[in-house]
Amino acid sequence: MIEQHPTTLQKQHVLQRLLFFTFALFLAVGMFALPASATGVYQMPQVSAGDSTWVIDEADVISRINEGKLSRTFQNLANNSGNEVRMVVIRRLDFGETIDSFADELFDTWFPTDEAKANQTLLILDTLTNNSAIRTGEATNAILSDETAQSIVEDNIGIPVREGNKYNEAFLSASNRLGEILSGQPDPGAPVARDTLDVESTFTKAEETDTANSTIWVIGLLIAATVIPMLTYFFYVGFPGR
């Protein structure tokens, strides 16, 4: 039997198939493995004083039930006192951005004048680093001192987050304290850190998400590195019809 080798045209078809397969594989892996993009100020929804947008959760760490509770708390606060609180959660910051620079820029963008800022409170958390910041207007600052505002960031937000990324607990604690103070009630005080074992969070941690994405990429690349050479060998060495 005469041995038949693949023709040039057949080889071109094989190369085209291999290129298509490789492109499709990396596209499929990329759809599932690309990390969440960074969030810049101008990627945020536009909010103005008087708007009924109270919670923006770009990181998807607050449950819908708790987001509803937060929104109702802040809506009632605005209706009864004129003081407005907004909570923002982002996945990660743009390169070179800090939580403080982001908070300053977002506060200025949403409330560009002193009058617009006057009764505003903005609380921001970046879940990648778990850094948070708070900004207040002049009228709010007369009720909510800088020391108390910092305690809300470090204690009401910081303690539950440090105890196991308990974002829901953190924002509910902060909203309750802000609601009391800004409605003219006595400050209920900061929570006390609990010396207990970490309880597993019901939400994926930022670092866990990054690890999962990296794992998917590695698996995809391993598959590509295994399958593509096998296909090449099959088509060029073991081509049907030889």
TrEMBL record:
One Pfam family in the UniProt entry: TPM_phosphatase
Transmembrane region(s): 216-239
Keywords carried by this UniProt record: Membrane, Transmembrane, Transmembrane helix
Residue intervals of the TPM domain: 55-180
Name of the protein this chain belongs to: TPM domain-containing protein
